[in-house]
Amino acid sequence: MLVRVENQTIIGKKMNHGIYAITVIGESLSGEKNLALILEIIRICGKNVIGENKKMHYVVSDIHNDYQKFCELLKMIEFSKEDKLFILGDMFDRSDYNPNPVDLYFKVMELEDNCSMIRGNHDEWLAAYILKYYQMPEWKRRKTEPYRYNTFRCLTRRLAPVDVQNLAKKVLDWPLQLSIQVNNEKYLFAHAMTSAPECTEDKYYYLMGNEMNAEYLHNGIEGYISICGHKNTANHKIWKNEKGNLIMCDCGCGFRNGKLGCLCLETKEEFYI
């Protein structure tokens, strides 16, 4: 990471255990005159230069079966047991070039309390199809229309029917919206659109959005920073509205030219795979 503070170039290199090694080109950081500089580096980097790790919060959305990119992202951000990851839905479907929903699912489950899931429309569709399929008698299953995307086929090739159904039930337990607070900033997370916590919308509002989407993109939700996925952003980059209270982070993962984008809430740093 390169940071410019008062015309000086600072190199902040993330070391093991999430601690930054700080170097100012051309001079040391000793002496009182550099105290303000050191504090500014700490603020920008979001980590303690000396001392214990600081818990970092990361947000990602729309992984769409791409296990490889997800693993590369965890490595890029040096995700640790102190950190927290929020996945804003659409973990499944697509990624026709390299679909691996089984390993992706178990990797996410392996993170346990360090990862929180939001349900997306593709997750909802997959889970509903799975449960409906296994409720049918065997003869009727052979005549039913195949699932539109590749995930069901990938799952049933590697998992027993009971495990596929358990996956579907777990998916339907994922919430439609979450709210958290980080560094005195209040956040709302949902797949397509967020709502004020005191308002409860129908599930398709959160999964797909509605006809008020243009107004929502402009205004967001008063008093909160909303972060969503669902719609691919332009140029496969994380998008923010002019007010700075709405962030969209579906960067097209699952499509051949798409990226998996991730945002750190403490530093506002963006990561792309």
Textual characterization of the structure:
With 273 residues, the protein is of the alpha/beta class. The protein is built from nine helices and 13 strands. The chain has helices at residues 35-45, 67-76, 101-111, 121-135, 138-141, 151-158, 161-173, 203-208, 213-219; strands at residues 2-5, 8-14, 20-24, 57-60, 84-87, 115-117, 177-182, 185-190, 225-228, 239-240, 246-248, 261-264, 270-272. The strands form three sheets. A five-stranded mixed beta sheet has the order 6-5-4-12-13, covered by helices on one side. Strands 7-8-9-11-10 form a five-stranded mixed beta sheet, with helices on one face. The protein has a three-stranded antiparallel beta sheet with strand order 1-2-3, with helices on one face. Helix 2 (67-76) runs parallel beside helix 3 and helix 4 crosses helix 7. It starts with a strand and ends with a strand. The model is unreliable at 1-28 and 47-52 (pLDDT under 50).
